[in-house]
Amino acid sequence: MSEYHIPVLLNESLDGLAIRPDGIYVDVTFGGGGHSREILNRLDDKGHLFVFDQDEDAVQNLWGDDRMTLINSNFRYITRWMKYYNVDSKIDGILADLGVSSYQFDNPQRGFSYRFDEALDMRMNQKQTLTAADVLNEYDVQHLQEMFSQYGEITNAKTLAQQIVQARTGRRIETTGQLVSVAEAVLRGHKMQYLSQLFQALRIEINDEMNALKDMLKGAEEVLKPGGRLSVISYHSLEDRLVKRFFKSGNFEGEPETDFFGKRSVGWKVITKNPIEADVEEQARNPRSRSGKLRVAEKAAGSRGQGAGKTKG
């Protein structure tokens, strides 16, 4: 297997799952298979692992193992697929390593990085039609501003949006190099950080990452058995905030729902009071791990997916 993706917080994320050798597990972000391989190492012949990846390039990293089933789909559909395989409400643990794989970042043709001057693509699923170039050339200034502000947390989002709209009047912005050139005219602060925030905002928008994450988290609560665990590694504050709130309250607003008598309904037992981060040694070995934050929670009995409160997928 080529070095498609170096697994971040490998032992910490898998230890958080408290893997049972005969259990059923799901890696919703297969990528290069680093986490999946270690999960399989901890399973016996009765255990099984389902892996999700919407990127068809990830298929090249599969290896022969009857205990593993690949699902070439977005992880937001986890409920649908687990019902298809008749394992909903039977899952012992789920792992999610969010963001873009090392392979995707380092492959110029995918357009995820400002380090290369290539076509603006950024699609994780190559079958979808919307690309980064489409967004930059077709969104109006207000839509661009909202995207840069919300998903990139860019302080001068309005100025950047106006600059892009002005630049595209002459010709379409088609390459990462063109986008960098446009952004350089208005960037604030550290160049690499600014461009990272810009490219992050585009990637999140094109792949609908925030809504997909919400769907996956809600689906995970449905398909996990009581006592099953969910390990999530996030790489920016937007993802981490969603995960933290969901584990705390069962929703994305951060306040637990209450019944008629004022009793709080919380579907998770938080295992990691504070997020786990990579140590200095791992950060030096794998720079991508520097921004990684791991949160682990355990599904409580009586939460969604059990009994009368079960939601339909």
TrEMBL record:
<feature type="binding site">
    <location>
        <position position="75"/>
    </location>
    <ligand>
        <name>S-adenosyl-L-methionine</name>
    </ligand>
</feature>
<keyword id="KW-0489">Methyltransferase</keyword>
<keyword id="KW-0949">S-adenosyl-L-methionine</keyword>
<comment type="similarity">
    <text>Belongs to the methyltransferase superfamily. RsmH family.</text>
</comment>
<keyword id="KW-0963">Cytoplasm</keyword>
<feature type="binding site">
    <location>
        <position position="53"/>
    </location>
    <ligand>
        <name>S-adenosyl-L-methionine</name>
    </ligand>
</feature>
<feature type="binding site">
    <location>
        <position position="97"/>
    </location>
    <ligand>
        <name>S-adenosyl-L-methionine</name>
    </ligand>
</feature>
<keyword id="KW-0808">Transferase</keyword>
<dbReference type="InterPro" id="IPR029063">
    <property type="entry name" value="SAM-dependent_MTases_sf"/>
</dbReference>
<dbReference type="GO" id="GO:0070475">
    <property type="term" value="P:rRNA base methylation"/>
</dbReference>
<dbReference type="InterPro" id="IPR002903">
    <property type="entry name" value="RsmH"/>
</dbReference>
<feature type="compositionally biased region" description="Gly residues">
    <location>
        <begin position="304"/>
        <end position="313"/>
    </location>
</feature>
<protein>
    <recommendedName>
        <fullName>Ribosomal RNA small subunit methyltransferase H</fullName>
        <ecNumber>2.1.1.199</ecNumber>
    </recommendedName>
</protein>
<feature type="binding site">
    <location>
        <position position="104"/>
    </location>
    <ligand>
        <name>S-adenosyl-L-methionine</name>
    </ligand>
</feature>
<keyword id="KW-0698">rRNA processing</keyword>
<feature type="binding site">
    <location>
        <begin position="33"/>
        <end position="35"/>
    </location>
    <ligand>
        <name>S-adenosyl-L-methionine</name>
    </ligand>
</feature>
<feature type="region of interest" description="Disordered">
    <location>
        <begin position="279"/>
        <end position="313"/>
    </location>
</feature>
<dbReference type="InterPro" id="IPR023397">
    <property type="entry name" value="SAM-dep_MeTrfase_MraW_recog"/>
</dbReference>
<comment type="function">
    <text>Specifically methylates the N4 position of cytidine in position 1402 (C1402) of 16S rRNA.</text>
</comment>
<dbReference type="GO" id="GO:0005737">
    <property type="term" value="C:cytoplasm"/>
</dbReference>
<dbReference type="GO" id="GO:0071424">
    <property type="term" value="F:rRNA (cytosine-N4-)-methyltransferase activity"/>
</dbReference>
<dbReference type="Pfam" id="PF01795">
    <property type="entry name" value="Methyltransf_5"/>
</dbReference>
